[in-house]
Amino acid sequence: MKVVDMHCDTISELLKRKREGKAAALRENDCHVDILKMKKGKYLLQNFALFVDMEACTDAWEEVQALLALYKQEIAANHEQIMPVLTWSDIEQNQKKGRMSAMLTVEEGGVCGGSLEKLEKLYGQGVRMLTLLWNYPNGLGYPNLNRHKGRAARQSAGEAERLVQQYLNTPDTENGLTDRGALFVERMEELGMIVDVSHMSDAGFYQVLSLTRKPFVASHSNARAVCPCVRNMSDDMIRALAERGGVMGLNFCADFLTQVPYGEENPGSIAAVVNHARHIVKVGGMECIGLGSDFDGIDTHRELTGADSMERLWNAFKESGFKESQIDKIWGGNVLRLYKEVLCAN
Q1: What is the DSSP letter of 234?
Q2: Which helix (H) or strand (E) segment is 333 a member of?
Q3: Strand partners, 106
Q4: How much is the average pLDDT of 42-49?
Q5: Rg (CA), the chain
Q6: How far separated are the first and last CA of the chain, in Å rounded?
Q7: Is 266 left (phi over 0), alpha (psi -120 to 50) or beta?
Q8: Cβ pair 299, 11 in contact under 8 A
Q9: 95/120 Cα distance (integer angstroms)
Q10: Distance CA 101, CA 82 (A)
Q11: Phi and psi angles of residue 11, each rounded to the nearest 5 degrees, phi first
């Protein structure tokens, strides 16, 4: 069992804590992910997202650069345990040396301000995956969950419950990529930067499908047929992703695993993660599923408390009837196959 996780927000959480004057280090912390927890969880590779909330900062480009500086500082401080990867061979070399690997990603393509030069600079700085959207329209395209609409729904007197459910469960099938967003997708494929469609509208997903030739990912998205939140993927989208050779990462966020009545606490469960995996495999086959925990971007999960709890999840998959060879593919085999195809020539 070796874990390859396509998404965590740990670097952004660490920077937030440092700015608050709190102790925050990648080696050991009380977040979901740190070096010691990863070792206990038997990690091979962790994607570290530089997540930027565009409306919570004055300059998104400066913010992503601050996150990048912290990432480099923390990886350098732990270089005997973990090293960055830029190419497929880096993953192989790190594994041979007994080190874990760190892949740098950005969550929120809007940090580039529509500039292809800034996109190329991020690639030069080591970014190998870009989540095009978060929860706001950003000049590249439109998300399925638009926070502006969500706020309005929650503030609607007497109708909040109905409108929130409508907001959570109604995909955007009309607004997809902008012309600039399409250029970004095309340039990313040329560079060898993996396109990530998590958070993207349904319309945008199908545009990415038509614009690309290589596999792409939904780094932290589940199955909409199991939980109707539109942050998850429809069966048709899962099939299309699988046919392209892409991979979707199981997200441990309780609200993307099961839906509860508005206002009720949603604790999440390991059983729900397994249910999503079973459905995804049924629809898209065994090759299209991986892990995308969303650790440190979600509330603490009662049964999956962090990177050190992955063996518990492995055992649940095994007890539910998955073969070890199948779990190996979910834990990392499928994602590594995609990385080898997309990153090998760079």
Answers
A1: P
A2: none
A3: 50, 130
A4: 98
A5: 19
A6: 28
A7: beta
A8: no
A9: 28
A10: 5
A11: -65, -40
pLDDT band of residue 101 (cuts 50, 70, 90) is very high
Report which secondary-structure segment, H or E, holds 281.
helix 270-284
Three-state DSSP class for residue 51 = strand
Residue closest to 126 by CA, chosen among 76, 74, 86? 86
pLDDT digits (tens, 9 = 90+) for 117-159: 999 999 999 999 999 999 999 999 999 998 877 777 677 756 6
- Strand, helix or coil for residue 159: coil
Name the pairing type of β-strands 100-107 and 82-84.
parallel
Mean pLDDT to the nearest integer, 252-271: 92
Look up tokens 């929130």; give the residue.
164
Q: Which pair of structure tokens corresponds to residue 63? A: 């913010």
CB count in 10 Å sphere of residue 216: 27
- Strand residue runs (E) in the chain: 3-5, 43-51, 82-84, 100-107, 127-131, 194-196, 217-218, 247-250, 289-291
Per the CB < 8 A criterion, the answer to whether 133 and 53 are in contact is no
- 184 in Cβ contact with 132 (< 8 Å): yes
Token code pair at residue 27: 């080696």
The amino acid occupying position 178 is: T
Cα separation of 341 and 260, whole Å?
39
For residue 1, what is the enclosing H or E element? none
CB 249 within 8 A of CB 290: yes
The whole-angstrom separation of Cα 170 and Cα 229 is: 8
Q: Please spell the DSSP secondary structure of 169-210, one letter per residue.
A: H---SS--B-HHHHHHHHHHHHHTPEEE-TTB-HHHHHHHHH
Q: Longest C-alpha distance within the chain, in Å?
A: 60
- Please give the pLDDT value at position 273: 97
Task: Report residue 310 as tokens.
Answer: 């992955």
Q: What's the chain's average pLDDT?
A: 95
CA angle 325, 330, 336 (to 5 degrees): 100
Angle between the 160-169 and 147-154 helix axes, to the nearest 10 degrees?
160
The CA distance from 46 to 4, in Å, is 6
Who has greater pLDDT, 345 or 189?
189
Residue 196: what pLDDT?
A: 98
DSSP label at 287? T
